[in-house]
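User: Can you write out an input/output pair for a complex, sequences first and structure second?

Assistant: Here is one pair. Inputs:
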Amino acid sequence: MDFGLSEEQRLLKDSIERLLADRYDFEARKQFMQSAEGWSRELWQQYAGLGLLGLPFEEKHGGFGGGPVEIMIVMEAFGRALALEPFVATVLLGGGLLRRAGSDAQKAAVLPKVAGGDLLLAFAHAERQSRYDLGDVLTAAKRDGAGYVLEGAKSLVLHGDSAHQLVVSARVSGSRKDREGIGLFLVDAKAEGISRRGYRTNDGQRAAEIAFEGVKVGADAALGEPGRAFPVIERVVHETIAALAAEAVGAMTAMHEMTVDYLRTRKQFGVPIGSFQVLQHKAVDMLVAIEQARSIMFYGTMMAEEPDAETRRKALSAVKAQIGRSGHTVGQIGTQLTGGIGVTMEYKGGHYFKRLAMIDTMFGDADHHLAALARMGGLAET
Amino acid sequence: MDLRFTPEEIAFREEVRTFIQTNLPEDIRRKMVEGRRLVKDDFVRWQRILNKQGWAVPHWPQEWGGTGWTPIQQYLFLEECQKAPAPDPVPFGTQMVGPVIIAFGNEAQKKRFLPRIANIDDFWCQGFSEPGAGSDLASLKTAAKRAGDHYVVNGQKTWTTYAQYADWIFCLVRTDPAAKKQEGISFLLIDMKTPGITVRPIQTIDGGHEVNETFFDDVKVPVENRIGEENKGWHYAKFLLSNERTGIARVGISKERIRRVKELASIELDGDRPLIEDERFRVKVASVEVELKSLEMLQLRVVAARRKGDNKPDPASSILKIKGSEIQQAITELALQVVGPYALPYDPDDDPLRNEPPIGPDWANPIAPAYFNMRKVSIYGGSNEIQKNIIAKAVLGL
Ligand SMILES: Cc1cc2nc3c(=O)[nH]c(=O)nc-3n(C[C@H](O)[C@H](O)[C@H](O)COP(=O)(O)OP(=O)(O)OC[C@H]3O[C@@H](n4cnc5c(N)ncnc54)[C@H](O)[C@@H]3O)c2cc1C
């Protein structure tokens, strides 16, 4: 067993960390957030230059054949920087679905452009009623000659406002919560019948509500066999959960550093407040929560590519539950220890707190995943 | 021991409840139920309705507008207001500076300020904290130098809640830099329109604007606006901080917020059934309700003790603050769980030009911001750590 990084992985880590340290301080981030798209095109091109945007893709598609460890490295760095760019939406979700479900032709047409930074994707999946159930899909794909017509509404589509193409889940058969009968379709985001309403999210990122009214797509828009998409959706979401765990760990670690720094430098009653033992212990509670999170992050990274769906499902539920809990603990204590400044927009700490809270509500919160894990009989020892 | 309310108290509660039901403006009530931000006009309208009824300042002496109610009646009144839910009175006037003026102000100050506080003709804010003086309030530096019949004030206050609305600010200022830190402080009332005062907004993490920095640059304050004696300000401030014993726990508000969480959890479906039918979620709600009931009984113990005329500062008020804030925060966390994925959109609805439909359920948008914002309740008014220090020292003798 070896938790160490290879030479290439270390290089990857150094280069992304250096780029973000140089270009992604809190002020820069604020400006990116206030720009029209809500993130930085320029940084996006830099990520492309470093090979991050094709990281998980095969070399023949402009990628680097990276695995979960490489994704973990990048996401942890993004978590530290509170990066706003649509990496999860484009590379992990959209790119992941193409990579896992697309034909060679589809991959060859799309992935090189993604890797080059020229094409943005989003995964239009959640719906108003679906909450955390990945199989709950009402949007319909009705047969129309050789192709399909999409009808329905998607909600909370991460970075759905800037995406060029959408991977849309839609039902070709069955009823609302059937896991059978879901298809995936690659659709131009500007296709006729699509309307999008973009908005900012509580953690400063972007998302969109997207309506599909009589959107016609050809047979070649389907990724994989329509009706059989659920396993691949679940798999890509699992990979994304593992990645979000790393992002959360990056955010927690950075928030902890800021908090400890505040304890060292903030003086009240004539001494640094870090000399009060009760605050020392709270800072240690944060560290304990972070180490638990970091440890389960490694477990998530290890299990992200587990082929057996049931085993993987249990593992990633465990990961998401721990990350959610640790995230709240770290966010709440960090905010408390930094006093008034901790609850202001002008202090970065609060932005970590918010991102951590939002990560918990993505793809199921801690309680949801604990219940799911319990229903599956818990984490059986292997 | 008889822990029931008397028939008279129950009748009183009915009277109060009916009055509030009839007179609380519906738009304000809705904002309160939905957890949306209140603006100055909301506070002012409700306060004036109460003042017309003679109920704006129940706890004040009758000659200045008090009702002469027993502590239990005052408690019942507050509880009914909070459960309605009506806005809590803005504390800075009626709960903070008002009682200080009553206890330590001179006749002229009483006549000048008290009626205007009761009717909120003057909106007050509190200038205690400074960038370098938070938990360690006595280390404050804002200086007031005597120059004939006025003081010249220089320095900075921060976290000044509602300074943007305020007509007046009450401040702790240093009048004797040579004295021991608690002994060189005076308590000044300052007109916010005085030249030299600048207010800069601070945005809180939920995107709201409730706090500010307040700068004083050669601000002239007439000596007649000093409360009591020079250099005795710390004594008045301590009175102010320990004065508010009921209400601090916000029991009524928490009851209303739990009712709301249960209501939302019975609307929001998880799969095919309402979230409230999820046993685990119900247990979480029940567990907060048990804590809240205990807190309510503690509050009643404090109120009842006061009836017997025991007016010593009570460490129970620190417990009320700690537990009350923890419960308020726990409830925002339950609400966050109910709203689930729709915590994500930042969808402020206080833009008057907005005419787009809400994203997701129409009750969703205030919930995540409230979760973020309510972290403040364990920080301000003496943080929970400071409250525990007080208990450790005053009760445990450690
Ligand atoms: C939303 C909001 C509104 C406010 N409104 C007002 C207002 O209207 N007027 C006003 O004057 N002030 C106001 N305040 C200020 C508030 O009272 C201070 O924030 C509070 O006193 C804490 O001070 P600080 O922020 O400087 O934190 P610090 O004092 O720096 O505290 C940081 C952390 O250290 C802990 N700590 C400090 N000392 C000790 C100790 N001895 N032992 C253990 N732990 C300790 C604290 O509990 C906290 O967790 C407001 C604050 C907020 C957040």
